[in-house]
Amino acid sequence: MITPEKEEQEKEKEYIVKSENEEEQEEVEIIKSENEEREKVENVEPEKEKCKESAFSKTPIPKELAGQPSRRYIEDYDLRSLLGKGGFGTVYLAKHKATGEKVAVKALHKQGIKKERAAKSVILEKNILKLAKRNQNPFLVGLFASFRSEHHVCLVTDYCAGGDLSTYLKENPLPRERVVFYSGCVVLGLQFLHQHNIIHRDIKPENILLDSDGYAKITDYGVAKRTLSYGNTTWSKGGTCYYMAPEMIKEIGYTKSVDWWAFGIMIYRMLTAKYPFNGSDRAILKHNITENQPQFPDTMSEDSIDIIERLLNKNPEMRLGSTDEDAEDVKKCSFYKDIDFDALAKKQIEPPYIPKKKTTGCFRRIFCRRKKRIAMTEEGCEEPLNLFPEVFKNFECSLFLPSDI
């Protein structure tokens, strides 16, 4: 039987998979997405954006931003503890020395970025973080800064003190009120991503963090995918097997609706602390996902069953959220009859649970270890990334916090 614990072990061995055989056109899409993203950001509020220029871009620093504290070097941060470690990097809790702001530092060792596709994925992740931050989306983890050093590429992001949702599950399901609230936050986060033609591809409790106020935020865009428009089909594989939609497993092409399938799996897991599909090995698990229907506990409410069944429709064209209405269709479900999404978007709904203030208590215990020193200097920062100079030439970035704007 594949267990959640085994799943995490598999993840260390690249259980999150990325196809090495994607079409050449998809590489072009990723490259184009960077330019498109840059244009979108620059065109939202031109005058305001001019004041947010990176302190280390080629553009001169505006006078009003002169003297702002540096965020470019690892020396600008006090690393506190290890929050997470996986095949795609190590995440540390840190404090920005100049401002006292708590942040998460995701350090990606350059030895793990040996292929141009991996390098472009890092850039895409950074661009999504940047987009989320500049739009001040409350349900997406955003970028604080990004920089390179001799051995690492670093993404500094918002820190969410409440930890990830999987730590609250363990053996017991979450109260229904919390499931409705957290999933409602995720609906709004996914809506923003999909509006910008981004497929997350790895929606699951482990990638949903709670901030200090109790609101849920989507994180980890490491396997995200840019699409051209609504309904555009892509083929590359990515995600965690438990949450993969049937069309992705069958490799017949998929759209943004794979995120809604994973969202349905996540709701089921939050309500039951179990997976709707299991298997003694990956082949059986995939068979059950593509061929079997989920079984529901007798105690589960009708509106909970209704939304899960509609999200787990094996026909992607009939799946809830698959139309051009996307998240708007999901919001109309009776499961959310008590949620005012307009108020939630403004964070005017009081969260049902406020995380404890303990710094790392809500993160998985195996991850909360003493920090290891990251050897980082600015000398030789192009090695071994000199293979991809065009990809990483504008990597350095520093975004100002809301209080700085």
What report would you give on this structure?
The protein folds into two domains: 22-161 and 361-404, Phosphorylase Kinase, domain 1 (2-Layer Sandwich), CATH 3.30.200.20; 166-345, Orthogonal Bundle (Transferase(Phosphotransferase), domain 1), CATH 1.10.510. A hairpin with a 5-residue loop joins strand 2 and strand 3 (102-109). 33% of the residues lie in helices and 13% in strands. It is globular, with a radius of gyration of 21 Å. The strands form three sheets. Strands 10-1-2-3-5-4-11 form a seven-stranded antiparallel sheet, covered by helices on one side. A two-stranded antiparallel ribbon has the order 6-9. Strands 7-8 form a two-stranded antiparallel ribbon. It has helices at residues 4-12, 24-44, 46-50, 116-134, 166-169, 176-195, 246-249, 257-272, 282-291, 302-311, 327-331, 341-345, 389-392, and strands at 77-86, 89-96, 102-109, 143-148, 152-158, 198-199, 208-210, 216-218, 225-226, 369-370, 397-398. The protein has 13 helices and eleven strands. The protein has 405 residues and is an alpha+beta fold.
